[in-house]
Amino acid sequence: MITGQSAVGETNAQAPSHAAQLANLEWALAHRHAFIVGGGNNPTLGLKYVHTRVVPTLLNDSCLWTNRVCHVVDVGAASYGPATGYDYSDSLLFLGSLGGQCTIHAFDLSASKLQELRDLAGGNPSLRTYHIALGDRDGNSTVRTPKHGADQRVNTWSIADDKRLAGSRGELRSLTFDSFAKTEGIRTVRYAKVDVQGHDPRVALGMRSLLHARRVGFASFEYSNHWQPPDSLASFQAWAQGLGYATFLVAADAARQRARLVRASGKFWRPALELCTPGSDRRCVIDLLIVKAQSALERQLLWHVNGEEAPPCRPRGAGRRAARGSFARHPRGSTSREPYVVPVTSGRSEERRVGKECR
């Protein structure tokens, strides 16, 4: 069970107004349908909009990252359906948009779907695949499947204790992401996407050490009726806030033809934002994002998605020269409208490779 910790405090200058809190809640309640993945909304909006339009810009923005080595994690990485659909592989999207700047670590419960993913990627060296289950403990886990038609419904496989999954594909090695990262020498993760059919809170718990050290920039999880009680959005957002992360629900804003992030933590949290009922038979699938609270990354994310005002990004840890700022043109391909600050880098490499990836 994910339980809340002491929340990161907000200063009076940072505290949101009552009007802002009310407007946030009113929009959410008036647009419940906009949050539901596969509920009739445009699949190119919502989280897919963030992945195609925003994530590449943020990951390539040098002034947001102190470490030059870029790692992206995709848990539940296999591809289903067309490139414009909800279930097209995010790993493939990232390979196409990041230009080899980041290593993509892709995890899935199906060895055959991972092989298909590697084939679709055309042997791209930036993609590393792992036939490993991620969770909140190291050991072995039972891969649960639908009792009938499991091979045709691979995207519903899970290691969660879900009563809807009565079949089994046997045991699979399972790890926490913290253990995996330590073995592989991964010190920081810029972005992690987790979509594992109800096991998302357990994967988050397995990332606790990295999150506590604020070594994960931002991450998305699938919040749904497949979560198992006592897990809930209320407990998840409180737990994430205790680690220094703000939580947002992702909506497909049809009126603006783009995604919208609705605040769901801190002073913005209201019980009415618990839109899904964990353990229910009523389908409810919503994407959520967590991001380092009160950070330049959070401000830039909100600027790129919601259009909220954000100060120019300054390079971190670059000394006096960076503090004064050296403004120039943005790197080719950037869509940012903010002044670009030329980063000062130390030239140090982050890691050495340990262990093997599944090829």
Describe the model.
It is a single chain. The protein has 359 residues and is of the alpha/beta class. The chain has helices at 18-30, 47-59, 90-97, 111-120, 177-184, 200-205, 208-212, 233-242, 296-306, 319-324, and strands spanning 71-75, 103-107, 127-130, 133-134, 139-145, 167-175, 189-194, 216-224, 245-253, 258-263, 285-292, 327-328, 340-341. The protein has an eight-stranded mixed sheet, sandwiched between helices. The relative contact order is 0.17.
Note the gap between the termini.
34 Å
Mean pLDDT: 85
How many helices? The count is 10
Query: What is the rounded Rg?
Result: 20 Å
Q: What fraction, in percent, of the residue positions are helical?
A: 25-40%
In short:
This protein has 359 residues and is α/β, with parallel strands linked by helices. It has helices spanning 18-30, 47-59, 90-97, 111-120, 177-184, 200-205, 208-212, 233-242, 296-306, 319-324; strands spanning 71-75, 103-107, 127-130, 133-134, 139-145, 167-175, 189-194, 216-224, 245-253, 258-263, 285-292, 327-328, 340-341.
